[in-house]
Here is the input.
Amino acid sequence: MQDPELMETAVLSDQEPTPIAPSDSSRMLMGAEDDQLGIRQLSQMQLFWIRFRRHKVALVGAVILAFFVVLAIIGPYISPETYEGSGWNPVALNWAPQWSWHYLMGTDANGHSILMYVLLGARTSLEVGVLSAFVATLIGILVGAVSGYFGGWVDAVWMRITDVFLTLPFLPLVILVSAYLGGGNAYIIVAIFGFLGWSSVARLIRSYYLTLREQEFVDAARAVGVSHSRIMFRHILPNALSPVIVSFTLAVAGFIVGEAAIDFLTVGIRPPSVSWGIALAGAQNNLILGNWWWAFFPGVCLLLVVLAINFLGDGLRDALDVRAKTSE
Amino acid sequence: MTTYIIRRLIQSTIIMFGLSIIFFFMLHLAPGGPCDVFIQSQRQVIQHELCVKTLGLHKPLPVQYWYWISGYLHGNFGKTTGGQLVSSTILAALPVTVLLATVSYFFQQIIALPLGMFSALRQYSFFDTVFTFMSYVGLSMPTFWLGLMLIYLFGVHFAVFPVGLVTDTHLPVFWTHDWFVALAHDPPLIIGDLARHLVLPAITLMVVGVAADSRFMRASMLDVIHQDYIRTAKAKGLKRRTVIFKHAFRNAVLPIITNIALYLPTLVGGFVITEAIFSYAGVGNLFVQSITSHDYGVVQALLMLSAIAVLLANLLADLTYAWVDPRIRYD
Here is the structure.
């Protein structure tokens, strides 16, 4: 796709991070000397892809994640059984893994196939993780954009509210609220995560808006009479998208672990829904019997998904050239 | 500086007020009150009414909030559904969490600091690559799964460590009068028992902690060894050891030390998941148990305490930064 020298030029900036804004660095790379050097212009997307491809671990992460996404989609169709369709099975109680599709990962104390937990749980985990991160990011963008853009008392009020949410002990509160409201519904858990987890995104977005709103293109937009909401979301937001993408990715990983944790403490999703956390919770009480497979396989899947997303997030952070920004 | 501290304290007070309202109404508007346990029993009506009366649940919510918050300001945290003082229940669980936190934090630093330092000194080497990969695994590790695997391996399969609790059941409970008497009588037995129970939960906590702190140490060390004064020290012909330990390490470890402040909230918040897995009777375990038994008072007190701890710890961390690094100024 690109010749090697070009790649070297393009990736210079990610070796030694320099304090230049993303737009500036890309302008430098494809800037004025284009004609003399004979460098082809690269779009933001191409630059991103060149940098991302260099990050081998992130590629591995992307592949692992893709595998689990496929699993989440086709899992219910290739699963040897459904939860409801397989009640107490006196023949297959606590079976160790065996070389057959049905019992590849052994069974639990009711005779349910652990493979079923793994296959169906992938969907639950990814669904809750992605949706929660989506809700949290959406609220975070709204709050951060409004308080960063308008400043003044709006900012002061919203930032105090954000401070309150930042101070909330996240996990204990999630456990508490889902113990009272949960009752096995994944969407209630999404709402809880989203409502309690937006504050750091809001802080991040606000810090970007504080600098971006001082730039000329915002003045220009204001001068020709563009409405506030249009400036906020059509003019400024695309410039603050890189940190949003990175924090979204890492939030997915966090919420997937969070969901498994509350399932594990039996205050989250409940049977007949299936999740990896439920499998681990069941395994906890029976581990003393030595049936390691019950906890091992769902847990390994959880670890792999979270690891893959973290790798991916790190690759995105480098490729999108996001640097840690202080909030105030 | 004084104005800064005062401003931060005022801000924190406002935040605490907001939090207290959230905690209060969140718990009271939720279904399944603390007195509902009595509904299932025989003498339901009288018991239930008595419970409602003692906890003041029949009064309007704003009035209840007022009683509750003014009680807190007087240091009165109310009573549990079992009739004990909330404060003494928490105080009984606190030493367990403090023990777990300090021991695991101590060993975590002993492992994390050298790891991070050496991987920074050999940046991009084989060791550094392996270390970076391992720290990713550590950071992504779900603690509850790690705990289960440790219980299986060392508690069940090899059976070298007990799988739960703080002390053996035939020995007195940790940090009680009996325990101290037993400790004075036979120190090796009591300390050994405590240590054996501590190993697995501490390792569970340390894996994530080591991964995070060694990454932090690596970044901090990399930052320092590219500074001018390190080059100067090398140019002067100082020994490599001296440069690393006297010039680089001392400066690189400062941010880690100030980070201890951010670790303080766990002392009162406890480790909810790890303590739950190992039935380790600390504050985190108490929190989960109180939720399952609908014990408002304890849950509220723990939430308030951990929120206060977070606010104070943040302030403390910022002040320590300024103290160890005179270049940082708050106005």
